[in-house]
Specification:
The protein is of the alpha/beta class. The protein is about 50% helix and about 10% strand. The protein contains eleven helices and five strands, in the order αααβαβαβαβαβαααα. It has a five-stranded parallel sheet with strand order 2-1-3-4-5, sandwiched between helices. Helix 4 (about 65-85) links the parallel strand 1 and strand 2. Helix 9 packs across helix 10 (about 260-270). The longest helix has 21 residues, at about 230-250. It is globular, with a radius of gyration of 22 Å. The N and C termini lie far apart (about 70 Å). About 40% of the residues are buried.
Length: about 290
């Protein structure tokens, strides 16, 4: 049976369409993605809970994928340390063909069933670790082989895909299947399928990080202070928390200045540690 991700587009003669019609057609198709992703939430919920249990014991999570799927997986993994302050070795993204494949396709790399486990071997995967395969079609040998070997080795396994009842889903314990239908350009899974995979990766990793305590309230208090924008954001968090503490105070404490808040942040190295010191000082003041 022909894969859903390879079915003919619902639109024909794209070259004859006006620019407005092209854009509106793509937008119309994109609007269907969130509903397809919503349907995976029950399975995703269980997967998140199981991943958190393992990561709280020190386990790592691996992503594997090829092409667009692999690039999305590596991007999600690489964004977690600066956003949530986790070590770069806690969530590891691997793409078929190696990091060079992030910019340029590596011929036949995705066809190697042993490739994913070989790429993981340098990290010495343990039975308590987690492997999430990412494959729009669900038929990528690199992903299928990686999941099969990982499950045999005792790792918790999941897959993010956009085809129903795929071979990759059959290998994994948890299958997140967001069936988004044919692409606007036939077979171009960088479009709706890519959007769906990005959404599922966002949901998976963000929920895990929140449950691991990497967020306070709704703030990224563990973010890495790698640029001026993030330092300014962290300074603002400190000022906002100081204002909240003042309102709760029975006395009349002197508010912290923006300059002092920035200095405190840079001295402590993280928003979380800066807030801890600020609260301690306010408590002692009272």
């Amino acid at each position: 049976m022909r894969k859903v991700t390879e079915q003919d587009s619902l639109y024909s003669d794209l070259g004859r369409m006006s620019v407005r019609d092209i854009l509106e057609g793509i937008n119309r198709e994109d609007a269907t993605v969130h509903e397809a992703v919503r349907k995976v939430i029950p399975t995703l919920e269980i997967l998140v809970e199981r991943v958190v249990e393992r990561m709280m014991r020190g386990a790592r999570m691996f992503y594997i994928g090829a092409g667009t799927s692999g690039r999305l997986a590596v991007t999600d993994a690489s964004e977690l340390p600066p956003t949530f302050g986790v070590g770069f070795d806690r969530v590891i993204g691997l793409i078929a063909g190696g990091d060079g494949a992030l910019r340029r396709a590596v011929e036949h790399a995705e066809d190697d069933e042993e490739g994913a486990w070989r790429d993981m071997a340098k990290y010495n995967p343990a039975s308590d670790d987690i492997l999430i395969g990412v494959a729009a079609s669900g038929t990528t040998p690199y992903v299928i082989g990686g999941i099969r070997r990982a499950r045999r080795e005792g790792l918790l396994t999941g897959v993010i895909t956009c085809n129903p009842q795929s071979p990759a889903a059959a290998e994994a314990e948890y299958a997140l299947e967001a069936v988004v239908g044919p692409e606007f350009v036939t077979g171009s899974t960088r479009m709706k399928a890519g959007t769906a995979q990005k959404m599922m990766l966002n949901m998976l990793s963000t929920a895990i990080m929140i449950r691991l305590g990497r967020v306070e309230g709704n703030r990224m208090v563990n973010m890495q202070l790698t640029n001026n924008k993030l330092i300014e954001r962290g300074t603002r968090m400190i000022l906002e928390e100081d204002l909240r503490l003042q309102k709760q105070s029975a006395g009349n404490p002197t508010p912290i200045s923006e300059e002092d808040a920035r200095a405190l942040l840079l001295r402590k190295g993280s928003v979380r540690e800066a807030l801890r010191e600020l609260r301690s000082k306010r408590l002692n003041h009272e």
